[in-house]
Design brief:
The structure holds 2 protein chains of 2 kinds.
Chain A (H helix, E strand, L loop, with lengths): L1 H42 L4 H31 L4 H5 L1
Chain B lengths: L1 H6 L4 E5 L2 E4 H22 L7 H20 L4 H20 L13 H23 L1 H6 L9 H36 L5 H40 L1
Antiparallel strand pairs in B: 1-2
Helix pairs in contact in B: 3-4, 4-8, 5-7, 5-8, 7-8
Classes of the chains: A mainly alpha, B mainly alpha.
């Protein structure tokens, strides 16, 4: 039972840390991207359409990093493949 | 709790012979049937002086065509049917999770993988259709044959990313609403549901836009070279 406790503790902590970091850094990157886009928009308001489109695509690309972290965290919490060595 | 939250999205409704039919399949087909019926009924009697319903639908198609025109001006009409229906389906598939008791089909990795596979195949289909097989395959060897593995890896990874992005977003939204419902029951999940609407529309837009850009990339990388040469 001791093993199980440690396993649960470790996976919970790992999941929390992972999602914290995985939300933090993409947020910083998205902030930078939005700042640059607003800067470009202020300089050249007539290019609004293409800037908005490119910004959305870029944000989607950055956001998918956070989503990868979320998927990994969900696997750790709900379907951890390493659990079978312990339960056996 | 552990498995309950996860298995909720894989409920098997009934069996069709040896084939288990999950809720996702039923919802997907229902959405497809509704869209098909609505578009068939409204396209049956088109008038030169349109009523309000026809004006609304023309607005939707016009907006889609404008968006495609901005990215791919030369071949907009060839790509329009595929990307347009992808957009419309994605919007309704994402939004259907709002209805209580139903889960969006896009909260299932199988649906999004199927959509991403369609996009993957259509990139090559449109590329070959417009440029011919030989020229299209040759563009994988540009600018240097050494880069061929990188081209292939990028094709595969961006297809997986397309599937996982849509799945992750919609799944996490529904899951967040569920968890908040467990913590605080009454009225608190409403803002999360509002966020769900916004995010569903944004994700549908992004999915269709990325599909469009991948298709445009397959077509235009050859045309750029032509202009230079």
């Amino acid at each position: 039972m001791q093993d199980m406790t440690w396993f649960t503790l470790a996976s919970t902590v790992a999941a929390a840390v992972a999602i914290a970091l995985g939300a933090m850094f993409p947020a910083l990157a998205m902030g930078r991207a939005i700042v640059q886009a607003l800067d470009a928009l202020a300089r050249q308001p007539e290019a609004e359409k293409s800037i908005t489109r490119t910004l959305f695509i870029g944000l989607a690309m950055i956001e998918s990093l956070a989503i990868y972290v979320l998927v990994v965290v969900l696997i750790i919490l709900f379907r951890n493949p390493l659990l079978q060595y312990l339960v056996k | 709790m552990t498995m309950a939250t996860n298995d909720q999205f894989e409920t098997v409704l009934f069996n069709l012979g040896p084939l288990p039919i999950s809720q996702t399949v039923v919802t997907t087909w229902a959405v497809m049937l509704c869209l098909l019926l609505i578009s068939w009924l409204s396209a049956r009697r088109l008038k030169l002086e349109p009523g309000p319903w026809q004006v609304a639908l023309e607005g939707v198609v016009g907006a889609i065509q404008d968006a495609i025109d901005a990215v791919l001006p030369q071949h907009a009409l060839i790509v329009l049917p595929f990307v347009g229906s992808l957009w419309i389906f994605a919007v309704f598939a994402n939004l259907i999770g709002i209805i209580p008791g139903l889960h969006g089909p896009t909260a299932d990795l199988s649906t999004t993988s199927a959509l991403a596979l369609l996009v993957f195949l259509s990139v090559h289909w449109y590329g070959i259709r417009i440029h011919g097989l030989r020229r299209y395959v040759r563009h994988y060897l540009e600018p240097n044959p050494i880069l061929l593995p990188f081209h292939i890896v990028s094709e595969i990874s961006r297809t997986i990313a397309l599937a996982v992005r849509l799945f992750g977003n919609i799944f996490s939204l529904e899951m967040a609403a569920l968890l908040i419902l467990l913590v605080a029951g009454f009225l608190v999940p409403v803002p999360v549901l509002l966020l769900h609407i916004v995010e569903a529309l944004v994700q549908a837009y992004i999915f269709g836009m990325l599909a469009l850009i991948y298709i445009a990339g397959g077509i235009q990388s050859l045309e750029m070279k032509q202009k230079e040469g």
